[in-house]
Amino acid sequence: MASSPISDQPSSPPAPAAPSAQPAPLTAEEQQALGALPASHWAQQPLGDDTFDDGASSIGSFTSTTASLSSSIYNYRTVHGRTYHGEVGNAESWQPNDERHVEAMEIFHHAMLVQLDGKLHLSPLDKKKVQKVLDVGTGSGLWAIDFADEYPNAEVIGTDVSPIQPTWVPPNVKFEIDDCNQEWTFNENSFDFIHMRMLVGVVTDWNELFLNAFRCCKPGGYVESIGASISFQSDDGSIKKESALGQWGIVMGEGGKKMGRPFTVYEDDLQRKGMEAAGFVDIQYEDIQCPMGVWHPEKKAAERGLWYKLAIEADLDGYVNYILNLVMGWTPDETKVYAAHAKKEWNNPKNHGYFMLRVAWGRKPE
């Protein structure tokens, strides 16, 4: 897990890097065998002109200043007009790293705080003893920055495959370019807390990930992982398998399988299994039901659904572009029509869809 520290930005933009080798798209027969409707299906379904406005479909723009690294890290790949990280290890992140998606990540950070009632973690940390912290897959870096503010005596390192973090940060924060799927080069027994959030579709081997975390965690330290189910459910049958939301888990799940980076982290219980296999003890987890939209009658649940919806809608195209276009072999137009159907469905208060979030944490024995 070799890392690259932040340095000065190059004076001129480098030439774009050649795209990495991609998995062959699924054939129509393969998609049919999975129960996935063909991409052409969505263009044949009328969207209609009915809209479902919850009164909070727009939100103020977020701004961020990108960090500057060596020119090779800025050799971004371009897929249908969206940019993705350059060559870092064997990383293959399915989320874009352009300005639009960074803004969506920042909304997503707040959405995750809402899920946890404003908490940055659920692990029982002793604030006086936390000296060094690692945030794996830090994204826009907001979690690392917030943690550093809350724990001013701790050194916080955020790692990611894209240099999209701000430069104005607390003095106890630094960001490094890392691929978490490579062997970690951090010293053994060096971190009091290791945080991982929403690495679904990113990790190639969850057991290996937690083995690396176990080795680099101090005795008595904690590791915490937040993951989500890939499928939308409903208790009243309002989410049908043939609906856009019913198909979401099928196509995205198969896309992750095709890349060798599973989205089924919750469904396959990969967090708890990986922690147990690595040797962590006192493993606990909390499952949180997150509505998609604001249909839920309970105020807190509706707020969770609202913020998650805002985060996804901030860049819905970015969330589906890589998997549906590059992996599943859909055309950009087919992907956009499908996304429009999905957005319409979760804004329809008659659809009571939700997914599950799991926060799992464990301690390294002393």
From TrEMBL:
<feature type="compositionally biased region" description="Low complexity">
    <location>
        <begin position="1"/>
        <end position="10"/>
    </location>
</feature>
<comment type="similarity">
    <text>Belongs to the methyltransferase superfamily. LaeA methyltransferase family.</text>
</comment>
<dbReference type="Pfam" id="PF13489">
    <property type="entry name" value="Methyltransf_23"/>
</dbReference>
<dbReference type="InterPro" id="IPR029063">
    <property type="entry name" value="SAM-dependent_MTases_sf"/>
</dbReference>
<feature type="region of interest" description="Disordered">
    <location>
        <begin position="1"/>
        <end position="35"/>
    </location>
</feature>
<protein>
    <submittedName>
        <fullName>S-adenosyl-L-methionine-dependent methyltransferase</fullName>
    </submittedName>
</protein>
<dbReference type="GO" id="GO:0032259">
    <property type="term" value="P:methylation"/>
</dbReference>
<dbReference type="GO" id="GO:0008168">
    <property type="term" value="F:methyltransferase activity"/>
</dbReference>
<keyword id="KW-0808">Transferase</keyword>
<keyword id="KW-0489">Methyltransferase</keyword>
